[in-house]
Amino acid sequence: MKLRLSLLGVVVGIGLAGALHAQDTPKDHALAWNPYATAKAGDWAAYAMDDRGYASKHRDIQSVAKVDGDTATVEEYPCTGKVGDTDHKTWTFSTKDAFTIEKIFSDKENTVTVSDLATTEEKKTVGGREFACTKISCKASRDYAGHKGKFHFEGTLTVWLSKDVKAPGIVAYTREDVRKRGKSTGGTPPHDMSRDVEVVGFGNGDKTDWGTKAKALKGD
Fold it and tell me: What does residue 27 show for φ and ψ, rounded to 5 degrees?
């Protein structure tokens, strides 16, 4: 993300580095279900993001470009953008493998390590709709390595996931990201990078299953 963080990348991805607590391994963090297990080409979900550290609010769309065997290729770009833009990102996810919180919130520039993870089932209301959710709360550290320098953040992450939402299944998340200056090098970001995210619509292709219609999002 330029240094504009993407939805899934805190940002979304596949890598995991750094040691976790001996009793707190990625295997222990596996969700009971994989948000991409039922993914179909054309599925999309749109999100409103409030990056408090940058005083920036924007919307992004994440869509499934294709499903080939057990692999889903996923794209993300601003609602007002298009494939090929600077902010356009692409990832691949397994539709079969166990899904972990690390896989949701890491990418080639960001490595997220979580600990003290707790999972509960609860209801979450967003946009006037109540979703049955798996709520995940944990401590999270993030190492960013990009063209702006290297930065280390520590904080907390709370995510609400629902099978009723198209992949990535995120209903909402809140991240409190505190920059640890002694472990960071580079000029930006000079501050913390906390974020609040909520789903605003989802569907397939031009069809909207719930929330803001795809065409309206594009013209936002």
Answer: -60, -40
